[in-house]
Amino acid sequence: MTAGNDQMRGAVPDWSEAELARAFAAGRESALRSLYERYGTLVYRIALGITRSVHDAEDVTQQTFVSAWEGRASFNPLSGTLPGWLIGITRHRALDKIRADTRSEARKRAAEGLLATVTDEPERIVDRIVIADELEQLSDDQRQVLELAFFDDLTHIQIAKLTGMPLGTVKSHLRRGIRKLRARWEVDGVFTS
Amino acid sequence: MSSPRDPHDPLHEQDRQDNLTLMALGEAVDADFTRHQAGCIHCREELQALTTTVHLARTRSRYIADAYPSDSVWNAISEAALGKHESARRRRLIRRERVGRFRTGERALAAVVAALIIGVGGFALGRQSSSNSHAIAARAVLLAQPGEPSAVSGTAQVIHDGSGYALSINTHSLPLRNGYYAVWVYNPTINHMINVGALGADGSGRFVLPPGADIRDYNIVDVSAQNFDGNPAHRQSVLQGPLTK
User: Fold this and answer.
1) pLDDT digits (tens, 9 = 90+) for A136-176
2) CA-CA distance, A131 to B77, in Å (whole number)?
3) Pairs of CB atoms within 8 A across A/B
């Protein structure tokens, strides 16, 4: 959640996830706002990835946070993270939305092909978005190095030459950054094996 | 036949991880390690997980990765879950600001400036009237900021005593939290603010205003929720109001 949308900057940046979860469970309205500011973009992107429709993704995002608020007592910190819990609700809502759409005859044929692709691998869509979300939150140096490796296909030696970083530093950023992505994926992803 | 180095020797753990990282990225590593990795179940499993991580990272959708929900989504959530309608004026844009600047967006700032120009004008400060040792030079009604419980409220008075100006704050229903409430005076024209102190446990306080801070310029009073983390930067406004004569 970096440039482009001021609403998504950390509203309560120093609230730990545990504190936010407690405030949310206690029904503090400011915690709902903080929850949205922290995870709203992630939820929206997952909804967008599954429904492939901005309009539907916005509906699903709204439904997810309203459901989360109404069912806040059901969040169990021992069984997962707050974003993981939200992601579960989002997937459920998004898949419902797609299924509901296919009942409309007018859109059925168009949706069928899309539905086949999406329901084959909705988990992978979610996992890609979760990993991309974690990449966004890495330190600037780690993110820069990983992006050069992932999207520009540079070797670690080429990255060192391009950025002027020592080779050891580049390797360290790659090593730690990839492990952070993996760890986040294994915690909040769906299809993690 | 034994390798000169055992990849699982804890002293070489960083090298082992570096090698697996490079392999996951599709780069070549030395033949000794490749041979080891092919026959070692731990390294094979770790490489599999890292390779999949890299693949999922590489195949993200650029469109989705840059997408943000529109403002209307929060409004809809707020209405449906909290029964609160947030008008465009009240909605606050949060920016990760540098120390010394407000966490308010330009829209909120514009609204505040507009209110000052239209409604408040200037006010004269009482000067050197030693008989009037506690003249109230200005007042503010402090309103709960978006996201705060609506029961939160406060008032502020700027008092001129013999030696200068003091800001007296009283608040009601500030939530108990693990942190403190800081008091600021803010200059909207140049977007600067000054911290004058922290509220007491009863939500009130009296603060000396620094002589260089002219309250005709620093004419917004703000109370923020701060953490005990050694970071003095203004975090989140809970109460705010303009000073008037």
Assistant:
1) 999 999 999 999 999 999 999 999 999 999 999 999 999 99
2) 26
3) 147
Rounded Cα distance, B23 and B31, in Å: 12
Could you read off the pLDDT of B18-37 as tens digits, one per residue? Answer: 999 999 999 999 999 999 99
B213 band by pLDDT with thresholds 50, 70 and 90: confident
What amino acid occupies position B163? Answer: S
Q: Mean pLDDT across the stretch A22-42?
A: 93
Tell me which of A90-94, A116-120, A157-161 is least confident: A116-120
Per CB-CB distance under 8 Å, the chain B contacts of A156 are 22, 25, 27
Q: Are B207 and B101 in contact (CB under 8 A)?
A: no
Helix (H, G, I), strand (E, B), or coil: what is residue B235?
A: coil
B220: closest CA among B204, B239, B236?
Answer: B239
Shortest Cα–Cα distance, B21 to chain A (Å): 6
Q: Identify whether the C-beta of residue B179 lies closer than 8 Å to the C-beta of residue B201.
A: no
- Nearest of B146, B186, B94, B229 to residue A7 by alpha carbon: B94
Which of A1-5, A108-112, B10-14, B203-207 is least confident? Answer: A1-5
For residue B139, how many other CB atoms are within 10 A of its CB? 17
The shortest CB-CB distance from B64 to any of A8, A45, A181 is to A45
Residue B244's DSSP bridge partners are B139
In the beta sheet, which residues pair with residue B157?
B139, B168
Residue among B111, B121, B109, B128 nearest B191 (CA):
B109
Say what the pLDDT of residue B193 is: 87
| Contacts with A180 from chain B: Cβ below 8 Å | none
Cβ–Cβ of A10/B94 closer than 8 Å?
yes
Task: Point out which residues pair with B32 in neighbouring strands.
Answer: none
Phi-psi group of B155: left, alpha or beta (phi > 0 → left; psi -120 to 50 → alpha; rest → beta): beta
Q: Angle CA(B60)–CA(B65)–CA(B71) in degrees, nearest 5?
A: 155
B82 C-beta neighbours (distance < 10 Å), count: 14
Q: In terms of C-beta density within 10 A (0-12 exposed, 13-18 middle, 19 or more buried), how is residue A4 classed?
A: exposed
